[in-house]
Design brief:
heterodimer; A: 791 residues; mainly alpha; two-stranded antiparallel ribbon; two-stranded antiparallel sheet; globular; B: 244 residues
C-alpha cells in the first residue's frame, strides 16, 4: 500500500460556466426566492412547520392520553408539505418541504416524552402518593415542568448535533423512516414509475392495515347484534347480558334502587372532591370526603352491583331524577356493548377442533376456556406457531404491521441481527428457561413469552442496550473525535485548501461554541425547574446524595441527568438509526429509577420532572437525527435544520403541557378526577410508568439484571461490531411479534437483492417500502382522528 | 474462524443469559435462614387443578416463611422468584461468568478473523489485474463522472435536457460508484484506521450531500443551484481523494 499521498486524480478540465439566472418560464412553479436563491428556509416553510406541528402535537397528545397512540409525524408532515407548499402555494421545493417537515416533527415529537411521564404525577396525586399535587396554568409546578421539558428539548438537540457526522456520515446509520420521508420528498424528480411504486406501497399498506385499524371504530350494539358479536368473540357473554339488562332499564325507564343510589353517591363524592381541591386545608370537607368515599367503596364492593360501572350508575341516577335521558345509558362508557367495524378477527379463522376426554374443547386449542377453538388471526396478529403445531412456549406470532415490514426491508441485512436476537430469546432461551424450571410453575407454557418479557427479557434487554451503547461510544471515539474536530474547524478557512467553493461555503454544522452556550443555558433551566418544583429547596433528600446540602445535591442530579440524557440520546439515535425502533419507555424508566436512587424514593416530582426532560430530550434527539438523515438524502444543509429545530424546541412542550392542563381541567369538572381511570383519557403509558415508580418504592426493580445485561452487551460489542449489543438488546426488549414481521422485511430485502440485484432492490424496493411506512402512518392517524372525533 | 467465533459468541450469549436469569431465582434447596424473610416477586407453587384455574401456594409480594417454604418444597417447587438479590443466593453465578468468558474469547476470535479478512481483501485489491475497483479508483471514477457531467451540460442547448441528464446521471452514480465506495468501509478502515476513515468520510459525505442537492435542485428545475452543487461536489471529491 502506498504511504505517500497519491497525485490528484486526472479529471477533465473545469467546464465553462453556464448562465442560468433567468426566471423560469411563466406558468412553471417558481422554486426560487425573490433573490433567485433555491428555496430552502422560507417564511412559508417555517409557518407551515409550526402550524402543522402544533396541530399534530395537540391532537396526538389527546390521542396519546386516550388510547396510547403517538407518532413522530415526519411522514405525515412531508405528505402535507407536498399538498400545501407544492400544491396550494405552487412553489415549495424539495428542500423547503424538508424544512417544513423538520419543524413540524420537532414541534410534534415532544408529546411522546411528555405524555409518558407528566400525567403520572396526576395519577400519583389520586392514589395519595403526591397529595395535593395539581397542574394548572397558575401553578408553579406547571411552569417548572414545562421549563424542564423545554430544557430537555434543547439538551436533546445540542447533544446530538455533534454526533451527526459520526452517525450519518461515518457510521452511515440507515434510519428507515427517514429514508421513507426522503423517498416522498424526492418523488417529484424520481420519475413517474417510482412515484407510482410509492403510491402502490401506500395503497397496499393501507389495504393491509385497514382491517387492523377499523375495529377501533365502534358503534353501540343493537340487541339483535349481540349474539353475532359473542359468536365473533367481539364481546363476552357477560357484556351481552349486561347490555340486555340495561336495555330493559331503558325500556322500563327505571333501574334498580341500588344502582340509582350508587350513581347519586358517586356524583356527591365527586362534588366533594372538587370542593376539597379548592379548600385543601378544610378539615370538615376532608372528613366529609373520607366518609363519602368509604360509603361509596362499600357500595362498589357489593358483589351484586360490582358489574355496574360508575358511569352507568350516574346515568341511571340522572335519568331517574329527570336530569338526563334514559337513552344516555346506551353508550360505551356505561358498559353497553359496542359493535366494532369489521377486522381480521371477523374472518373467523380458527384452529381445528380437538376435544378432550370430557368432551370439552382441549386446552391445546382453547386457551381462553370458551369451549371453542381459538382464533388464529386476530385483528393485529397471526399466530403461525399454533397452526404449525410448535410448542406452546414458542410464541411464533406475527404482527400485521406494514410499517414493520417496510422498516425491516429498508434496514436490510443489519436488521437480521435483531431477528436473530429475537429468535434466540424467544425460541431458545425462553423455552429453555421454562424447561429448566426458571419460570414459575403457575405460568402456562403459552404464557411464557409474556412472563419472560416482563421478568427478565426486558430488564436484560435494557442492560444490553446500555452496555452495547457504551461499547459503541468507546469503539467510535476516534470517529467522534474526528467528527467534533471537523465541526470545530467548520467556518474556518483551511490553510491548505485550494478550493474556493469548499472554503467559501457556509459551515455545514452549528459551531461548538453555540452548542455549548445553548447546552449550558438548558442545564441552568433544568436546575431552576428542579429547584422550584414540588418541595423545591425546602425539601430533604434521603437517597445516595442525602448527606449533601440540598442545593448541591440538586445541582449534581442535574449534571448526572444531563450526562445520562446525552448517553440515552445516543442509545435512542442508534436504535432508531439501525432499526427504526425506539426504546424510549425503557430509558424513561431508568431515568426515573436513577433520580429516585439519587434523591430518595420520596422525591417523585423531581424524578418525574427529570424523566420528562429526558424523554423529551431523547425523542427530540432521535427525531433530529432522523430529520438530518432525510436532509442528507435530499441534500439539505444540516446547519439550517439544526438551527430551526433548536429555535422551535420550546413550542412543543408548551403545547403538550397546555393540552394536558386543559384536558385535566375538563376531566376534573366532569368526573372529579383529572386523568386516568374514570375519565376518557386513561393515560395508558403514564399508568405503566406509575407501576414502575410504585415498583421502585416497593423495591421490586431487578437492578442486578440491568447490570448483568450491561456486561453482556459490552462484551458483545467487543466482537463483530460495536452496535451488536444494542441490536440484541433491542430484540430482547421488544415484543417478538413485531420483530418477526420486521425480520420478514429484512429477509425480503436480501432475497430481492439476490434475485434482482442490489441496485434493483434499492431503486424499486425503497419507494415501495417507504409507501408501506407512510401508508400505515396516514391511515392510523385518520382512524384515530375518527375515533377521537366520535368521542 | 469467523464462523467458529460467531458460534462461540452465540452459545456464550445464551449461557450468559441463562445464568443471569437465575439471579433472582434462589433454589429452595438453600437453607431456610437464607430464604425466610425474602419477598416473592411472582406467584409460587404449582397449579393444583385445571391449568386454566391457576392457584398458587403463595401469591406475589408474599414474604417467605418457614411454613410457606415447607409447602412449596412439599409440592416439588424448586425455585421461587424474589425481589432481593444476593450473591450468596445465586449458585449459578459461574454460568454467567462462563458466558462472559466465552463472549470475550469469541470477540477476540472475531476481531482476529475480521482483520485477516480485511487484509486479504486489501491485498487482492492491490494485486495486478484485480477486477474490482479499489476505493481510490472508485473515488477517481466518481470524480471523473461528475466532471464529465459538468462538461456535457455545457454542450446541451435545452434546459430541460440538462436537467433530465443531471437526474439520470446522478441516479446512476448513486447506484454504482457511491454504493461501491460505501461498501469498501471495512477495507478502508483496516488501512486508515477509524480516525482516518472518519476524516475521509467527512469529505466524502459532504460531496455526496452536494451531489444529492444537485439532484434535488434539478428535480425542482432550479438549474443554477444544481450546477453550483455539482461544482462543490467535484471539489469535495478532490479533497476526499487527498485524504485517502
Amino acid at each position: 500500500m502506498a504511504t505517500t499521498p497519491p497525485p490528484p486524480p486526472a479529471s477533465t478540465p473545469p467546464p465553462p460556466p453556464i448562465s442560468h439566472s433567468a426566471p423560469p418560464p411563466a406558468g412553471r412553479p417558481r422554486r426560487v426566492t425573490a433573490s433567485g436563491a433555491y428555496r430552502e428556509v422560507t417564511v412559508s416553510s417555517i409557518i407551515f412547520g409550526i402550524v402543522v406541528g402544533a396541530i399534530m402535537n395537540a391532537a396526538i397528545t389527546y390521542a396519546g392520553l386516550k388510547i396510547g397512540f403517538t407518532i413522530v409525524g415526519s411522514a405525515i408532515a412531508a405528505v402535507l408539505g407536498f399538498g400545501v407548499l407544492r400544491g396550494l402555494l405552487r412553489r415549495g421545493s424539495i428542500l423547503e418541504t424538508n424544512i417544513g417537515q423538520t419543524i413540524a416533527s420537532a414541534v410534534n415529537t415532544t408529546n411522546a416524552g411528555v405524555i409518558f411521564t407528566v400525567p403520572v404525577l396526576l395519577l400519583l396525586a389520586q392514589n395519595g402518593t403526591l397529595p395535593g399535587f395539581e397542574l394548572r396554568f397558575d401553578s408553579l409546578d406547571f411552569w417548572m415542568i414545562t421549563l424542564a421539558c423545554i430544557a430537555g428539548a434543547l439538551l436533546g438537540c445540542v447533544f446530538i448535533v455533534p454526533l451527526r457526522k459520526q452517525m450519518l456520515d461515518i457510521d452511515r446509520l440507515r434510519f428507515p423512516s427517514a429514508v421513507a420521508v426522503a423517498a416522498i420528498l424526492k418523488s417529484p424528480g424520481a420519475g413517474a414509475a417510482k412515484s407510482i411504486v410509492l403510491a402502490v406501497g401506500i395503497v397496499v399498506s393501507m389495504l393491509i392495515y385497514l382491517p387492523v385499524g377499523l375495529p377501533a371504530i365502534k358503534n353501540p350494539a343493537r340487541l339483535d347484534q349481540l349474539d353475532s358479536l359473542v359468536e365473533r368473540e367481539r364481546i363476552t357473554p357477560a357484556e351481552a347480558a349486561l347490555t340486555r339488562e340495561v336495555a330493559g332499564w331503558i325500556e322500563a325507564e327505571n333501574a334498580p334502587d341500588a344502582v340509582i343510589e350508587r350513581g347519586r353517591s358517586t356524583l356527591a363524592a365527586r362534588e366533594a372532591h372538587v370542593e376539597l381541591a379548592a379548600s385543601p386545608d378544610d378539615d370538615s370537607v376532608q372528613q366529609r370526603v373520607e366518609a363519602m368515599d368509604a360509603a361509596l367503596k362499600a357500595m362498589t364492593d357489593d358483589p351484586a352491583s360490582r358489574r355496574y360501572n360508575a358511569a352507568l350508575c350516574i346515568a341511571a341516577y340522572e335519568a331517574s331524577a329527570g336530569k338526563g335521558s334514559w337513552e344516555r345509558l346506551r353508550a360505551p362508557d356505561t358498559g353497553w356493548a359496542m359493535a366494532p367495524m369489521r377486522g381480521y378477527k371477523d374472518l373467523g379463522l380458527r384452529l381445528g377442533s380437538k376435544k378432550a376426554a370430557d368432551g370439552k374443547e382441549s386446552i391445546a386449542t382453547d386457551r381462553d376456556g370458551n369451549n371453542r377453538p381459538d382464533l388464529v388471526v386476530v385483528d393485529d396478529t397471526i399466530d403461525a406457531g399454533r397452526v404449525l403445531g410448535l410448542p406452546d412456549q414458542m410464541a411464533f406470532v406475527f404482527a400485521i404491521a406494514p410499517f414493520a415490514l417496510g422498516a425491516g426491508y429498508l434496514t436490510g441485512r443489519a436488521g437480521l441481527l435483531v431477528l436473530a436476537g429475537g429468535i434466540l430469546a424467544y425460541f431458545l432461551l425462553n423455552p429453555l428457561a421454562f424447561s429448566l424450571g426458571y419460570v414459575p410453575s403457575t405460568t402456562r407454557a403459552d404464557e411464557v413469552a409474556g412472563y419472560a418479557l416482563g421478568a427478565f427479557n426486558r430488564p436484560l434487554g435494557i442492560g444490553l442496550l446500555l452496555g452495547g451503547a457504551m461499547m459503541g461510544v468507546i469503539a467510535s471515539l476516534p470517529a467522534i473525535r474526528e467528527a467534533i474536530k471537523s465541526i470545530g474547524a467548520a467556518g474556518k478557512v483551511a490553510p491548505n485548501s485550494r478550493s474556493t467553493a469548499v472554503s467559501n461555503r457556509t459551515p455545514d454544522e452549528m459551531s461548538l461554541r453555540s452548542l455549548l452556550i445553548i447546552g449550558g443555558l438548558a442545564m441552568v433551566l433544568l436546575l431552576v425547574a428542579t429547584e422550584f418544583s414540588g418541595q423545591g429547596g425546602a425539601g430533604t433528600m434521603t437517597g445516595w446524595l442525602g448527606g449533601l446540602p440540598v442545593w448541591l445535591a440538586r445541582a449534581l442530579i442535574v449534571l448526572i441527568a444531563a450526562a445520562w440524557i446525552w448517553f440515552a440520546g445516543i442509545i435512542i439515535a442508534q436504535c432508531t438509526g439501525m432499526t427504526d425502533w425506539s426504546p424510549i419507555s425503557g430509558m424513561a424508566l431508568l431515568t426515573v429509577v436513577l433520580v429516585m436512587l439519587l434523591a430518595g424514593k420520596e422525591d417523585v416530582i423531581s424524578a418525574v420532572l427529570l424523566g420528562a426532560a429526558l424523554c423529551v430530550a431523547i425523542s427530540c434527539a432521535s427525531d433530529m437525527m432522523a430529520d438530518l438523515k432525510t436532509g442528507y438524502i435530499v441534500g439539505g444543509v444540516p446547519r439550517r435544520q439544526q438551527i430551526l429545530e433548536i429555535a422551535t424546541a420550546a413550542i412543543g412542550p408548551v403545547i403538550t403541557m397546555s393540552t394536558i392542563v386543559l384536558i385535566a381541567g375538563v376531566n376534573m369538572r366532569q368526573f372529579g378526577v383529572p386523568i386516568g381511570p374514570g375519565t376518557p383519557t386513561v393515560a395508558p403509558q403514564a399508568q405503566a410508568l406509575q407501576a414502575v415508580i410504585t415498583g421502585v418504592q416497593g423495591g421490586e426493580m431487578p437492578y442486578t439484571l440491568y447490570g448483568l445485561g450491561a456486561a453482556l452487551g459490552a462484551l458483545l460489542g467487543l466482537g463483530a461490531f460495536a452496535g451488536l449489543g444494542v441490536l440484541v438488546g433491542l430484540s430482547m426488549y421488544l415484543p417478538f411479534y413485531y420483530i418477526l414481521t420486521y425480520g420478514i422485511g429484512c429477509v425480503a430485502n436480501m432475497v430481492v437483492g439476490k434475485i434482482k440485484g442490489r441496485a434493483w432492490a434499492e431503486e424499486w424496493g425503497v419507494p415501495f417500502c417507504a409507501g408501506l411506512i407512510v401508508g400505515e402512518a396516514i391511515l392510523a392517524l385518520v382512524i384515530n382522528a375518527i375515533v377521537l372525533l366520535r368521542g | 474462524m469467523k464462523l467458529a467465533a460467531f458460534l462461540l459468541i452465540t452459545i456464550s450469549l445464551c449461557v450468559g443469559v441463562i445464568g443471569a436469569i437465575t439471579a433472582y431465582l434462589p433454589p429452595l434447596s438453600l437453607p431456610n435462614e437464607q430464604l425466610v424473610g425474602l419477598t416473592l416477586n411472582a406467584a409460587a407453587g404449582k397449579a393444583t387443578i385445571d391449568p386454566r384455574d391457576k392457584a398458587p401456594i403463595a401469591p406475589a409480594r408474599t414474604e417467605l416463611t418457614p411454613e410457606i417454604l415447607t409447602s412449596l418444597r412439599d409440592q416439588g417447587v424448586e425455585r421461587v422468584r424474589v425481589k432481593e438479590f444476593a450473591l450468596g443466593r445465586w449458585p449459578e453465578w459461574w454460568v454467567f461468568v462462563l458466558g462472559c468468558v466465552g463472549l470475550g474469547v469469541g470477540a477476540f476470535l472475531m476481531r482476529t478473523a475480521n482483520r485477516s479478512i480485511a487484509a486479504t481483501r486489501s491485498a487482492s485489491a492491490d494485486a495486478v489485474g484485480a477486477s474490482r475497483l479499489s476505493p481510490e479508483q472508485t473515488l477517481d471514477a466518481l470524480h471523473s463522472e461528475v466532471d464529465s457531467l459538468r462538461s456535457r451540460l455545457t454542450t446541451m442547448a435545452a434546459e430541460s435536457d440538462r436537467l433530465s441528464t443531471i437526474l439520470a446521471e446522478i441516479s446512476r452514480m448513486q447506484q454504482t460508484h457511491i454504493a461501491s465506495f460505501l461498501a469498501a468501509r471495512s477495507e478502508i478502515t483496516a488501512r486508515l484506521g477509524l480516525g482516518g476513515y472518519a476524516r475521509l468520510m467527512d469529505a466524502f459525505a459532504s460531496a455526496e450531500r452536494a451531489i444529492n442537492r444537485a439532484w434535488s435542485a434539478a428535480a425542482d428545475e432550479v438549474e443554477a443551484e444544481s450546477l453550483a452543487s455539482l461544482d462543490l461536489a467535484s471539489e469535495l471529491l478532490v479533497e476526499a481523494r487527498h485524504r485517502i
